[in-house]
Amino acid sequence: MAFHLIDPETWERRDHYRYYQTLVRTGYTLTVDLNITRLLKEVRRRGLRFYPVMLYVVSTAVNRQRELRMARDQDGQLGYWDVCHPSYTIFHDDDHTFSDIWTAYSPEFSRFYRDCVEDLETWKDVKGVKAKPGRPDAFTPISCLPWLSYAGVSYDTPMTSPMLFPVVLFGKYFQRDGETLLPFSGYFQHCVNDGYHASLFFNTVQELADHSEDWMEEPD
According to CATH, what is the number of the domain 14-32+49-86+99-171+179-214? Predict the structure, then answer.
């Protein structure tokens, strides 16, 4: 896992970055209804668990787009990681708290699915905000809200936060006009992600959901 520095003098977004870091310090959230009709059909046909599959879809989309992997190093210099790993929430039914765990990303679906299911089983009863230690510096925060089919979401995150990674949330899927839709949201830092970059992300997630038969193999 490598961190690549960006030359602030030649970067095409240098003026936008400075503008949103100094004058308009803001982030924004977009929510779409993701069509998962074909994806869910494949998940059920293969007897897979939906949550690990969605974690793979989101992580694959993130790792196809440099803007979603941007961060600052320990000296505050801007750059991007060559890969980001999903850092995601699990829910404890007994006390209604959550914990955060992570799984190393692999572009090979069967390998990622196997490792993710193993992590879910290993850490499912470990309490505390951060249950699995050793999370890498390059990560994508992902949460699931399976009890609610929401229409929108907002985040009150101070812009003093050093994190530039997007924050992803998806909810309870529902039926409309014969299609299965999933509320799907992303919170983006405007200094590194404009609406164009966010749109690329959503469109890539939709494309992966539409063509799951192209990448979904049976887990080992």
Answer: 3.30.559.10
Give the model confidence (pLDDT) of 131-180 as tens digits.
999 999 999 999 999 999 999 888 766 555 568 999 999 999 999 999 99
pLDDT tens, 96-109? 999 999 999 999 99
Rounded to the nearest angstrom, the gap between the alpha carbon of residue 9 and the centroid of all alpha carbons in its chain is 29
Its pTM stands at: 0.94
Q: Mark whether 197 is an active-site residue.
A: no
Which residue among the candidates 16, 190, 197, 211 is catalytic per the annotation? 190
